[in-house]
Each structure stands twice: as C-alpha cells, then as structure tokens.
Amino acid sequence: MAEPERRPCPQCGELIAAGAKLCRFCHAEFDEQGEVLAPGAPPARPAEEGDATGGIIPYKNTPALIAYYCGVFSVIPCFPIGIAAFFLGLKGLKVAKENPAVRGQVHAWIGIIVGGFFGLVWTILTVLGTVAAVFHK
Predict the structure, then answer these.
(1) Most exposed: 57, 65, 74, 99, by fewest CB within 10 Å?
(2) 130 and 99, same structural domain?
(3) How far apart are CA 22 and CA 92, in angstroms?
C-alpha cells in the first residue's frame, strides 16, 4: 500500500498529510493552499507533549534510555554493562538538564545507581576471583 504524501507543517515542522486542513500536532489551521490561517500564532499546545508513549519512555534521551536497560541487565555477571550504564546515565542526566523536554532523569538515575552498584560488585568479584586463582596454584 502506498504511503500518503506528507509535508512539514508550516507552524511546528512536524510531518502531516499533504491535504490536511489541521495539524494534528500543533492544531494550526490551513487554508486551501496549505497556508496557516493565523500566521505567527503560537501552537495550541507545546510540540513536546502528545507523544504516543505518554512521556513514559524517554525516546528523545537516548543515553538515559540505554543507561536504564544496561542498568537492568547489569545484574548479569558482566561488569562492563554496569560501567556503561553508569556513564551513560551521567550523560543522560546532562542531556535532560540541557533540554528538559527530552525527560529521562529517572531512567538515567536507575542506570547510574543499579549499573554502578552491579558494575562495582562484578568488578570486585572478578578481581577477587583472579587473585584467588593466581595464589591458589
């Protein structure tokens, strides 16, 4: 099935159907030529609202999202995953601080705390296991 033709909304820039009379993102109204009826008017709602996830998944803050999943999977004995979660969580917090609309602070903190904890635990156990193997001979 062919994808319908799309064009950017002149008000908010989101892709909308070419023949649309109303932008589903900013609710701007268009005339027959596709021009905004009230140019320069602010959008009815901010562009950062209304994503399909309800704001639960911070898909715009990739480091925080990856930190979260690395933190969750850091319970598996592989210390680099926890270390990656820790540093990606820090980067995710920085991204969220620079642009609050991207969200993801909670995901970043989970990556920092859980990933940091298990990264440290698995690193210590790896070092102790290596030392024990060397001195056991």
Answers:
(1) 99
(2) yes
(3) 35
